[in-house]
Amino acid sequence: MHYLKKLLDFYINSSIHVALSVYALVRMTGYLFDIAKIDASALFAFFGTIVGYNFVKYDALARIQKLQMRSELKGIAVLSFLSFLATGYYFFQLEETTKIIAFVFLILTILYTLPFFPNRKNARNWAGVKIYIVALCWVGVTLFLPIINAGITLTLYVFVIAVQRFILIFVLILIFEIIDLQVDDPNLKTVPQQIGVEKTKIVGGLLLLLFILLCFFQIDFSFPSLFVRLGVAFTIFLFLLFAHEKQSKYYSTFWAESIPILWWVLLLVFS
Fold it and tell me: Which of 61, 82, 92, 188 is deepest in the core (most CB within 10 A)?
C-alpha cells in the first residue's frame, strides 16, 4: 500500500495526471470539430503540460536552492527532460501558424514563472491574475491550437466552446483556491481571499449555469450531449460545494482534475 501511495504521489507530482486532462480536452476538440489529424496537437499538449507545470512548480524552489533532489524529484527531472524532447519533436509536426501560437503560450508560461518586471516576483504573483492566465492557457492549448492547426475557421461556434472551456477550467481552479486558502500568500488575492468561500461557491454555481445555457447555442446540440454536459456541470458543482480548506490534497489534485477526462469518456460513450 505504501508503494502504491508513492506511485500515486509521483503520478500527481510529476504532472502526468494534469497532462492527461489537457490531452483529454484536446481529443475532445478533435471529436467536436471532426479533426482527423489530432495526434501531433494532443501529444504536444500532453508533453508540453508536463514540462510547463513542472517548470512552474519546481523552478523557483530550485533557483533559491531550497529543493533537495530526493529520488522522486530526480525522477520528475528525468521525466521533464524526456517530455521536453518529446515536446520539441511534436512542435515541429505542427503547422507554421500553430507554431507561432504555441510559442506565444510558451512565453506566457515563462512570464508566469520568472521575474521580468521591477517589484514583481512573476506574473503568478500578480494580484488576482493567476486564475485568468491558467484558464486562458488551457483554452488556447486545448481548443484554439488544434483548431488552427487543422485550418478550421474561427466561427461563433468555436467561441461558444471556448467560453464553455474557460468556465470549466475557471471553476476547477476555484476548487483549488478554496482548498489552498490557508497556504496561499494573501497578496495573491485569489477569488476566495477576496470574496470568501461561500460567495466563491455561488460565483462558481452561476458560471456552471451559464455553461449549461451555452449548450443551446451550439450547432451540434442534441439531448445526449446536453445530458453529458449536465452531468459534468453537476459533478463539478458537487466538488465545488464540498470543497473546504481541510480537504485532502487528492480531492483537487486527483479527483477534481479527473473531470476533463471523465467528460471526454462520457462524450465518446453517449454521443
Answer: 188
| CA atoms of 112 and 39, how far apart (whole Å) | 27
Amino acid identity of residue 144, one-letter, is F
**How many Cα atoms are found within 13 Å in the side-chain-facing hemisphere of 38?**
23
Positive/negative CA dihedral, 222, 268, 149, 214: positive
Q: Which of 105-119, 181-195, 210-224, 234-248 has the highest mean pLDDT?
A: 234-248
DSSP reduced 3-state for 9: helix
Tell me whether residue 36 is exposed, middle or buried, using C-beta atoms within 10 angstroms of its C-beta: 0 to 12, 13 to 18, 19 or more: exposed
Q: pTM for the whole thing?
A: 0.90
Assess contact for 30 and 38: CB atoms under 8 A. Answer: yes
Q: How far apart are the first and last CA of the chain?
A: 38
pLDDT in tens, 200-236: 999 999 999 999 999 887 766 677 778 888 999 999 9
Cα(98)–Cα(153) distance, integer angstroms: 14
Q: What span, in angstroms and rounded, lies between the C-alpha atoms of 215 and 61? A: 42
Residue 143: which residues within 8 A CB-CB, separation 6 or more? 25, 29, 158, 161, 162, 165
C-alpha cell at 224: 445526449
